[in-house]
Amino acid sequence: MSSRVLQDARRIVVKVGSSLVTNEGRGLDEGAIEEWSRQLAALVHGDDGIRREVIMVSSGAVAEGMKRLGWATRPKEIHELQAAAAVGQMGLVQMYETKLRTYNVGSAQVLLTHADLADRERYLNARSTLLTLLQLGVVPVINENDTVVNDEIKFGDNDTLGALVANLVDADALIILTDQKGLYTADPRSNPHAQFVHEAQAGDVALEAMAGGAGSSIGKGGMLTKILAAKRAAGSGASTVIAWGREHAVLLRLARGESIGTLLVAPTHKNQARKQWMMDHLQLHGAVTIDAGAALKVRDEGKSLLPVGMVAVEGDFSRGDVIAVRDAQGVEIARGLANYSSSEARLLCRHASSEVEQLLGYRGEPEMVHRDNMVVLH
Ligand SMILES: Nc1ncnc2c1ncn2[C@@H]1O[C@H](COP(=O)(O)OP(=O)(O)O)[C@@H](O)[C@H]1O
Ligand SMILES: N[C@@H](CCC(=O)OP(=O)(O)O)C(=O)O
């Protein structure tokens, strides 16, 4: 069963750490970035007959910036780290862009902060942008927006960012590429008797005791943040693989179902996990009442709610808030994230999606609540 996890994955987040990307701080590893780009392109183009959507979360900005600025030791001052990240990020994305283009794949730079994912509206915006890029066959190259974050508000390590991105886009799998073959029962750098862990359940607390901090001065998180990232990714049903980034054709072989690295299997199914998350975390901010035709689509056919099916709007909510969807009898049949605010929704009631631009002055999503962001209650 385990090999199928990656074989069946259609939307994959790949995270690469600083030590790999910058060759332990020596500078951007052009050969490695080229090799990952070749594999990403093959996955996106579906060279094996299956097209996949891939997001790259890449570290390395600070390490590369330090090199470009001629700094031998990591600065202590946060503004110096931020300056290094800003310098290094240029080189980082330039290289991904060049290499991916060589293999006929477009790329896009996306810089995110914690605040972007904590705020519902920005969360939805980030999600729509990433999903649009994926639909266009473009590979988003993501890093933390180091320039605007300080110690208290940063993800800090990109393992956590990778997991949050996997949650954000409902990825099927998170692949964390690092400088070890995977997880061992102890840090192999300091314990020669450490045993390799081939497979475990994501979220198993026993794994946390095995994992230590970063083995080099370049990487930030170490193995513990990877284990915690796997647990977090499992929250939305994504399984995680931790593997060596220089393993030959690692991404393609994983996609073929080969077992490489450590597989941390998500215990719950993707859709079930997302529904649970919706039910657990979301507070209602308002409601829309829909007509019988729309109720049929939403409840029985699992379709999105379009503005044309809405007949009334209650409450005061913003884009990204959770609203109840009620049928004509007032029975709540679903809950989901609103794509439009309550005042906009009032204008959109009974109108076709093609009229959104004319009514609101901008072209938004065709759906009031997209089915991916909706839980049908019965
Ligand atoms: N149980 C463990 N198994 C494997 N590696 C471990 C373990 N505990 C700690 N490590 C260390 O974690 C390091 C990888 O983390 P890190 O240096 O942050 O890499 P990256 O830059 O790829 O995120 C390894 O080089 C290793 O020394
Ligand atoms: N945003 C930072 C990444 C932080 C970091 O070092 O992460 P990682 O190497 O993945 O543990 C950078 O690009 O330098």
UniProtKB/TrEMBL annotation:
Main location class: cytoplasm
Assigned keywords, A-Z: Amino-acid biosynthesis, ATP-binding, Cytoplasm, Kinase, Nucleotide-binding, Proline biosynthesis, Transferase
Gene: proB
Molecular function terms, GO-annotated: glutamate 5-kinase activity
Positions contributing to ATP binding: K15, T178, D179
InterPro entries noted in UniProt: AceGlu_kinase-like_sf, Asp/Glu/Uridylate_kinase, G5K_ProB, Glu/AcGlu_kinase, Glu_5kinase, Glu_5kinase/COase_Synthase, Glutamate_5-kinase_CS, PUA
Positions of the PUA domain: 286-369
Reactions listed under catalytic activity: L-glutamate + ATP = L-glutamyl 5-phosphate + ADP
Full protein name: Glutamate 5-kinase
Similarity comment: family membership: Belongs to the glutamate 5-kinase family.
Organism domain of life: Bacteria
EC number: 2.7.2.11
Residues reported to bind substrate: S59, D146, N158
Role: Catalyzes the transfer of a phosphate group to glutamate to form L-glutamate 5-phosphate.
Places the protein is found: Cytoplasm
Pathway terms, separated by semicolons: Amino-acid biosynthesis; L-proline biosynthesis; L-glutamate 5-semialdehyde from L-glutamate: step 1/2
